[in-house]
Amino acid sequence: DGTPGNTVIGHTRWATHGAPSDANAHPHSDCLGTIAIVHNGIIKNFDELKKALIRKGHVFHSDTDTEVVSHLVEDFIREGLKPYEAFKEAIKKVKGSYAIALITAYEPDKIFFAKKDSPLIIGLGDGFNFLASDIPAFQRR
Known about the structure:
The chain is built from 3 helices and 6 strands, in the order ββαααββββ. By secondary structure, the chain is an alpha+beta fold.
């Protein structure tokens, strides 16, 4: 099953919020399983955002700061925004440093991404594109 499309996101986690565990491993999702997100960095206001989202009925499955963004995007989509607009609004609420990539079942052939004070490298190929937070991800092995 899974999400249809030609996009993939992956992540190697360095634990900053939440212990290393399967539940805290990326990607993280929203309540409906329609959004997948990976993130490097630190979201300073994640606890405040998480509490507000829980009051609205969101259910979290990890102790990470990353998962908050997927629920923020979900919340804005529920309010009627298109995924890209919802992503932009969610990013406006996030404080800290980050490199974020998100895919959604609503637009399965797109990757939404944002960065602030964290590296995010874009690689353009013939018929394919890459995002990475570190240059070695693009090097041949």
